[in-house]
Amino acid sequence: MKQFKRETVYNGIGGYEKMEEIVETFYGYVKQNPVLIPLFPEDLTETKHKQKLFLTQFFGGPRLYEEERGHPMLRRRHLPFPITPSARDAWLACMNQSLVENKVEEPYFTEMIERLTLTANHMMNTPES
What we know:
It is built from 7 helices and no strands. The chain is an all-alpha fold and 129 residues long. It has a single domain, classed as Globin-like (Orthogonal Bundle). Helix 6 packs antiparallel against helix 7.
């Protein structure tokens, strides 16, 4: 019985170029979000770079994040930042807007939002004040 290799989200949406567009658009929304902007450095250059590497790998592309930075260890890397339910929701809203603006189509849109939601839930480390 022949097995068919499932197309990755990364390839399905258009690869690294599309991931770059998504991340650039996403951080445009982050800069405007009063809940999120205090959590990020003023210069987002390095943050965007790491996000592009991570999302590429997370969605089935080359393992660029691991090659450059080692294992993602997302929760540990995010512990210094107070990630509340409101911050999670704001982050997901910005990502949702970015995916819509960059015309990510189904089934990739839903798969991306579902996986990012699970990850965002895992990153929460601070109760709402």
